[in-house]
Amino acid sequence: MTDASINATREYEPTFGDYVALLKPRVMSLVVFTALVGLLVAPVSLHPVEAFAAILFIALGAGASGALNMWYDADIDGVMRRTRRRPIPSGRVEPGEALAIGVALSGLSVVMLALATNLVAAGLLAFTIFFYAVVYTMWLKRSTPQNIVIGGAAGAFPPMIGWAAATGGVSVESVLMFALIFMWTPPHFWALALFMRSDYDDAGVPMLTVTHGRRVTRKYVLVYTVLLAPVAFGLAFSSVGGPVTLAAAVLLNVMFVKGALDIAGRGEPAAEADSYGTEKRFFKLSLAYLFLHFGALLADAALRGIM
């Protein structure tokens, strides 16, 4: 074998970074953060070792979901500009490897979370993996423009899992945390779909921008943003809320609604004229919106701890 052929072979050998990318680390960071908040604001405290184990296994479950999603969506990922450099469509990881990793991590994360905490938390984690990999990825994503509305539940479960890991159950507070992410998800992803423009058209994914057009999508962004605000205020007035969460709800929802109004009032010529800058800014704001809301819950929990 020549040096050139050896180098060519090595070029396609997956690295540790490729396997990490398969687990969708950016999505995992959001899952870990919201699950950690759910665990820390719960009225029952876990031993630090148990808490670390719980977050670790929730993160592994999120990674398993990501690997299964990439395995099944490799065909459309290869078409979309945003995803074509992912490990499978770029040829760095074989589909069979991704499937094996996803299945193995799914089983490991659920079993170990049950052993580290309780069956309720493990059951919620198992259902979340199933919902994301099967209900959303294999069914909803390619069959209905409501894909991201219904499928958003998968990303909303982590704080409930964290809460259940600490308390062994589900409560109004954990449901409100779930609802905040659930209602936040559609405007967040529709803003992405608006400025990515042709990606979903090219891939044949029935995102709302494809099936109903951009004008309708902009109106729906506003509708869901307005509906999100009462959930944020409900969480602020719950037992896990407080003055910091209330202040965050007021400020962030004013900014979010204003951003949605700016999007709703635009036409396609105006959007193209500024390269969809308004939609991009709204998308970035949506990321800050969620992290700051859950950060405010942590701040209020800290205040209660020192009072």
Summarize the structure in words.
The chain crosses the membrane at residues 27-46, 52-72, 93-115, 121-140, 147-169, 175-196, 217-237, 282-303. This protein has 307 residues and is an all-alpha fold. The protein folds into two domains: 10-169, UbiA prenyltransferase (Tetracycline Repressor, domain 2, Orthogonal Bundle); 171-307. Helices cover 79% and strands 0% of the residues. The protein contains 17 helices and no strands. Helix 6 (95-116) packs antiparallel against helix 7 and helix 10 packs antiparallel against helix 11 (172-196). It starts with a helix and ends with a helix. Residues 1-10 have low confidence and may be disordered.
What key phrases describe this protein's structure?
single chain, Tetracycline Repressor, domain 2, 2 domains, flat, disordered N terminus, transmembrane helix, UbiA_prenylTrfase_CS, transmembrane, EC 2.5.1.141
